[in-house]
Amino acid sequence: xxxxxxxxxxxxxxxxxxxxxxxxxxxxxxxxxxxxxxxxxxxxxxxxxxxxxxxxxxxxxxxxxxxxxxxxxxxxxxxxxxxxxxxxxxxxxxxxxxxxxxxxxxxxxxxxxxxxxxxxxxxxxxxxxxxxxxxxxxxxxxxxxxxxxxxxxxxxxxxxxxxxxxxxxxxxxxxxxxxxxxxxxxxxxxxxxxxxxxxxxxxxxxxxxxxxxxxxxxxxxxxxxxxxxxxxxxxxxxxxxxxxxxxxxxxxxxxxxxxxxxxxxxxxxxxxxxxxxxxxxxxxxxxxxxxxxxxxxxxxxxxxxxxxxxxxxxxxxxxxxxxxxxxxxxxxxxxxxxxxxxxxxxxxxxxxxxxxxxxxxxxxxxxxxxxxxxxxxxxxxxxxxxxxxxxxxxxxxxxxxxxxxxx
Amino acid sequence: xxxxxxxxxxxxxxxxxxxxxxxxxxxxxxxxxxxxxxxxxxxxxxxxxxxxxxxxxxxxxxxxxxxxxxxxxxxxxxxxxxxxxxxxxxxxxxxxxxxxxxxxxxxxxxxxxxxxxxxxxxxxxxxxxxxxxxxxxxxxxxxxxxxxxxxxxxxxxxxxxxxxxxxxxxxxxxxxxxxxxxxxxxxxxxxxxxxxxxxxxxxxxxxxxxxxxxxxxxxxxxxxxxxxxxxxxxxxxxxxxxxxxxxxxxxxxxxxxxxxxxxxxxxxxxxxxxxxxxxxxxxx
Lengths: 407, 284
Prior knowledge:
The structure holds 2 protein chains of 2 kinds.
Chain A lengths: L5 E15 L6 H6 L7 E15 L3 E6 L5 H9 L6 E6 L3 E4 L12 H11 L4 H15 L14 H13 L5 E5 L7 H16 L3 E5 L3 H7 L2 E6 L2 E6 L1 H13 L3 H7 L1 E4 L3 E9 L5 E2 L1 E3 L3 E10 L3 E2 L2 E8 L4 E6 L9 E2 L4 E9 L5 E10 L7 E6 L2 E6 L25
Parallel strand pairs in A: 3-7, 3-8, 5-6, 6-7, 13-22
Antiparallel strand pairs in A: 1-2, 1-4, 8-9, 10-21, 11-12, 11-14, 14-19, 15-18, 16-17, 16-20, 20-21, 20-22
Helix pairs in contact in A: 3-4, 3-5, 4-5, 7-8
Chain B lengths: L1 H9 L1 E2 L10 H22 L4 H22 L9 H23 L1 H4 L1 H4 L8 H27 L11 H25 L3 H14 L13 H7 L3 H14 L6 H5 L6 H21 L3 H4 L1
Helix pairs in contact in B: 2-7, 3-4, 4-7, 4-8, 4-9, 4-11, 7-8, 8-11, 8-13
């Protein structure tokens, strides 16, 4: 996809912040303790980051909070100076960082637009010429004389985004643009992304939103603790992102666990398996997978019901099943007996985190719960296909041009 | 092949933030835009806007005039004392406001500094420029007072241009230096407040320089560039009979001392600012 030659080259860029433990803020302190070097704790935000982005490429930068994404963007934008290494850019750079470019709250929206456009490199005349396009794109025409301090955060973002895309930069650096803003404006931004991409602008987008990455980016890069983990296609990167993000989700899993029951049955262990029978924490979308629970009978039971529910992070049940639907009579189990309860299914769930709740209950009403361990096992579903729904049911999409029979 | 070569050639290093940046035109556009916007804020921020900008020095003038002509009778025998006092106050007000607001100007524009790549020196310069615009208007008020008190226009009035330019340079140098220091040392501000008060009394604003009995003290006071500007403005505009700056310092060659001070302040200010410019965004 990339045109001739790179538009941005980042070569071995490192950035260290020294965070003083005890900040010397005044001359008096300096004068009283001239020999005391303030103790600094070095925080290495970027450790030798290298990559390049081709002309016309839409490049995603993803990573967890504190992985160095925003610092990297600021180094590329020239706001921070890299300690070592260098950044090369081939064209004018426009930046959109942390909700807005830099506004003055006491000035009207109109003045801020002009100011920002000039800040981003336009001349005054150009800024005035483009003002109408900017304010119309933001949809804030009726608020142009309103002071910025009276704007909502969504309005601010719209204004800032509109300025940024109108300054004709060859290279756009965008940090978390779509976090705020209503659905209509987000759609407008998406349209604008498509337009910019088609025009061959080079865009670097920092985001947490894997949907955006898969939808727009040609390539993406995963950062972790200031280092490049990998650079690749959006699918690969978003899978890795989910893995690094959720794989070590141990503590939350234990926190969420809720045990209830009459004590006559226990669940010794529970996990997810991939198609090859390996225990996993992450599951790729579209594969055959299984949930397994090891059930330990403390007392004897006759025809108990084994059930399984898969919940989302929002406590919705995405999927539930039980032996009731398959074999009503499960048989008799002696005290001390151990059985495996296995639910195999095709993984059509949307990417995200899911929690399994196994239950063993008395036959019949289902109210007499022998054991129920809520959120006993957690799994992260990875995949690039995030259509927005909770499940991604196997389906086909086809357009049929209606051949209306002439009547 | 050539296409690849050409586009590789276009790559340029993205340098970190600096004081000046590479493009003088953009530098000036930014400074001017920021200054004008800030000026308009001051103007239209309150109902009476400019009225208060002018009233502050005028009220100070009123109080001082009353005290030093009715109570203390310091200016009793001095020709055109009220106009001299007013002009001194207007010049001093500019000096105090320009440097005083420049001190904290960088943190005050944090949202710009942390989010946009632009030459950092724009910030203190735009602050001084805003005050400068205000000063120009205030000085017109002085001219009206001067004419009203019966002083005839003279060719020497044109001396005001180099004087005002020098005053602007002085404020720019000091403002630049203080704004860079303030990012690291927050107590620069109270210290400078005191320094400003001292410089009010250390300049021939309240008192005519010739009333100081000790001529060596006169010479010493005149080493201050601000004193030179105040004194020379009085000589050129209000009263040719008053000693010129050269006369008050004891000979024209000695004027090199305040001139050297002015140059040192500007150079030092730029040097300090330039050194801290790359890391200002991180230190806020």
